[in-house]
Fold:
Amino acid sequence: MNAKQKKNLIRIIITAVLMLVLAYMPLSGWPRFFAYLVPYFLVGYDILYKAGKGIKNRRTFDESLLMAIATLGAMALAVYEDGDYTEAIAVMLFYQVGEWFQAYAVGRSRRDISALMDIRPDYANIEQEDGTLTQVDPDEVEIGSVIVVKPGEKIPLDGVVEEGTSSLNTVALTGEALPRDAKEGDEVLSGCININGLLKIRTTKEFDESTASKILEMVEEASSRKSKSENFIARFARVYTPIVVYAALALAVLPPLVRILGMGLAPEWGTWIYRALTFLVISCPCALVVSVPLSFFAGIGGASRQGVLVKGSNYLEALSEVKTVVFDKTGTLTKGIFAVSAIHTDKLNEQQLLHLAAHVERYSTHPIAESLRNAFGHEADGCSVESVEEIAGHGVRAQVNGKTVCVGNAKMMESIGANWHECDAMGTMIHVAVDGEYAGHIVISDVVKENAAAAIKALKKAGIKQTVMLTGDSARIADRVAASLQLDTVYSQLLPQDKVAKVEELLQQPATGKLAFVGDGINDAPVLSRADVGIAMGAMGSDAAIEAADIVLMDDDPLKISVARRIARKTLRIVKQNIYFSIGIKVLVLLLGALGFANMWAAIFADVGVMVLAVLNAVRAMFVPQCADIKERTVQVGSDVTVA
Structure:
């Protein structure tokens, strides 16, 4: 609770106490009037000021004016009739209670988003020649500079660790509370907090292009992208408010004139003016004007707590209506890195085969060679590796401990006369021959993300009708991945322009409904822009993909898509509940008020009571428990080494 909220709460409490005291004081006439003015102005001075300012600036029709007219009119009637001043003060008091609840709810939901603002670094440490550190503005640090990040400091710019090891708090970026280890050679993102070790980082991006700056820019722009519901409420309020003011004026004037001129009866001005004032209080649209934007704001805040950045409430609304989710494969459903997934041997055991292949590929920079070395992990074991020869289009040949070892593709095996055989395992086959005899093969494949299968399962449970995968890979690999993840449809061997055409084709099909595309690469940017909702991987995804997307998953976990959709659907349910509830109660009490069956206390409930209930309902959008699938860690095809 901030200082302003505390001040308003104190005002509300003091006003309530004064009203209770005055109710037991034997006052009448003008002394009674002036005594009741004290709590009235104490609780309502800011509303009266806003109403006067609105009239001065020719923005008259808002809830402050409605409150001012209604309460001042009720006070005037009480003076005229020496009646009850508590109704006018109660209207102001409960209106302020409703405003306090609104401010508290906004502050609560803003807390999650404002946490992102804390990722903005204040400075970067540059090491001088004498070893001292100088703090400079992150804007002044050029690409390729080495910065020093001490324990407890924020990483100011994206870069690669050159020296040191540490654990990083990434919760502001990814929503993941578990610290991430960082060591030499690892890429680190700005906005993370260095927990325990000294890091020297060579920067790879300027400050304006760094992750922290991009996130802040997207957060600041999110509020400008309004949903259809918010736009409807804004247009509704602009038309509705002047109508009810003129209707209240007609209710105060026309019935008395009809009674005098048409019926020859007493006009009863006091009765009809009281009804008109009650009508004004009832008709105040603050429940709608406040609760609908607040619901979306709370939904976006709740999503940010889960590491999902939504760029606007319009995208949250669109996500709630999605029926088809289309995935890119590499980097989205898979990790985009090669790893050993299977070892099949003919002559040697699996460790010996991997040992020979890793040593032959010791000096190669190819990603497949790196995956072999990573899988073996004991490069410095004293083995003699000589006469390394790389044969273009075939593989590598070398002498390992005096034996001729050939590591490569089928062409190499055929060229040396080794009797190789096919394998059903998914991925790239690396054959190994020793002194001309076939020894076996190693399968290298892209690793499927741990949560990929659980993500597809959770989406179907959440109401997604169709899941599709688009990839440039061969049909054999694509079909195996799709089958392992239980995707509905897969399209393979696609170029980037083919992906756009395929999405266009899907959008033309009536059964598709709204379509979301999930991708990470620069070649996915056109498809992300074309889809109804574009979802990008934020940790390892390209800048172009993140820029083109409407929603960004900060930890690249596809399981968060179902979480985001559940938040979106819950938010839209709450918005509709608030709209129907607010309008329904308003219409009912308006009719009762016009007919004289609802007094000012009923009006207070129809205005402030409904607003408080709508605000409390809106706050629920912040809290969406994670589905059970979020904790599942299924074993994926290609994630473990299997031995035959």
Summary: The chain has four domains: 3-114+225-297+570-622, 124-153+157-209, 313-332+450-549, 336-448. Confidence is low (pLDDT under 50) at residues 627-644. The domain at 336-448 is CATH 3.40.1110.10 (Calcium-transporting ATPase, cytoplasmic domain N).
